[in-house]
Specification:
The structure is a single chain. The chain is mainly beta and 135 residues long. The protein has one domain: Immunoglobulin-like (Sandwich). It is built from no helices and eleven strands. It has a five-stranded mixed beta sheet with strand order 1-3-5-9-4, with no helix packed on it. The chain is elongated. The chain starts with a strand and ends with a strand. 28% of the residues are buried. It comes from Marinobacter xestospongiae. Keywords: Signal. InterPro entries: FN3_dom, FN3_sf, Ig-like_fold.
């Protein structure tokens, strides 16, 4: 597990934690099923958890209601370039956990950014990596 920081649009510091991997049941949290390539088999799970920022970079308070959604980017390339990664819009701006399922074994990298109700997206968080092992 690795702790990292993120910034929302004009907001400041939140933390994100990559927690569990491996097989997994349903937890009731929002999730995305990774679609593996033709030769890929996958059952690995990565659960992401974060804390929403409470303050904008200007110093103004940021209300939870101002956060519309989060955008998650993940892939097996450590730079998470747009061409080599998957983007998922997490519609629940009030939620602070998300599960990616169906990941084939290997190292997976994740980054997240928040989007406010005006559509302003913050910068991408630091990238965290997680090793998915075969079941």
């Amino acid at each position: 597990m690795k702790l990292m920081k993120m910034v929302i649009g004009i907001a400041v510091l939140a933390s994100m934690l990559l927690t569990a991997c491996g097989g997994g049941g349903s937890s009731g949290m929002p999730q995305h099923k990774h679609v593996a390539g033709a030769s890929g088999k996958g059952g690995g799970v990565a659960t992401l958890r974060w804390q929403a920022p409470g303050q904008r970079m200007s110093g103004e308070s940021l209300k939870m209601a101002d956060i519309e959604s989060y955008r998650l980017r993940y892939g097996q390339e450590s730079d998470l370039s747009e061409s080599s990664s998957t983007d998922v819009m997490i519609q629940d701006g009030q939620g602070m956990a998300f599960r990616v399922t169906g990941l084939p074994p290997g190292t997976w990298y994740f980054s997240i950014r928040a989007v406010d109700h005006r559509g302003w997206a913050g910068p991408w968080s630091e990238i965290v990596g997680k090793e998915i092992v075969a079941n």
